[in-house]
Amino acid sequence: MQKRAIETRENILKTAIGIFSECGYHGTKVDRIAEVADINKQRIYAYFHSKAGLFEQCLTAVFEGVKLFDDKAMAAARLEPARLTEIILREYMALHRKHPYFWRMLAWANLENDSSLKKLPGLKEKDYTALKELFGNAVELGLQPRGVSFETYIFTLMAISYFYHSNRKTLSKTLSPELFTGQGMEKLIAECSLMTAAR
Questions:
Q1: Sign of CA pseudo-dihedral 51, 57, 59, 61
Q2: N or C: which end of the chain has fewer CB within 10 A?
Q3: Domain-by-domain residue ranges, the chain?
Q4: CA–CA separation, 160 and 168 (whole Å)
């Protein structure tokens, strides 16, 4: 693919991710993406074949664009396995701040049919394998409870960070506005670390 074609495709994806994340699949029109991207609508169909194909590529691009756990955090977790929950949860919170479209695209994808999810299996296998190894080491050292599987552990941390960002408006009104301050988030991370530590 030529450089200009690659740039055009990337422009379409970037524009579509922004619009899909705000409006969802059904609320997004290809005409709107074309207008914002300043491109002919037929060019979108040439690259992605359909609106569904474009949404699938956007979702895949969003997943590929995030790293669940960076190398610096991985090194810190190896050196201080007692802080594993804190380190992972802090990374997940930062991930959502750095990639504001991520949780929105996840939410819309989960409201759609499975056709948009075809390319997701295996995308984060490397990240999960590394995290599972760290978790296993922490369990062996007696720092995490033995009766909790890796899947339950990581699901819980993902759920906390996702829910924190996706529901901040409603929870700041119904639960606690302080929870969504810097100090409140630090308290949440610290207390979640206590909840997952071995007794």
A1: negative
A2: C
A3: 3-59, 66-196
A4: 11
pTM here is 0.84
The reported pLDDT for the residue numbered 117 is 74
What is the rounded average pLDDT of the residues 101-126?
80
Q: How confident is the model at residue 114 (pLDDT cuts 50, 70, 90)?
A: low
Residue with tokens 């990374």: 91
Of the chain, the end-to-end C-alpha distance in Å amounts to: 56
Report the pLDDT value the prediction gives residue 37, as an integer from 0 to 100: 93
- Calpha distance 54→60 (Å, rounded): 10
The DSSP element (H or E) to which 116 belongs, if any, is: none
Other CB atoms within a 10 A radius of the CB of residue 20 amount to 24
CATH of domain 3-59: 1.10.10.60
* Three-state SS at 20: helix
In contact, 91 and 187? CB cutoff 8 Å: no
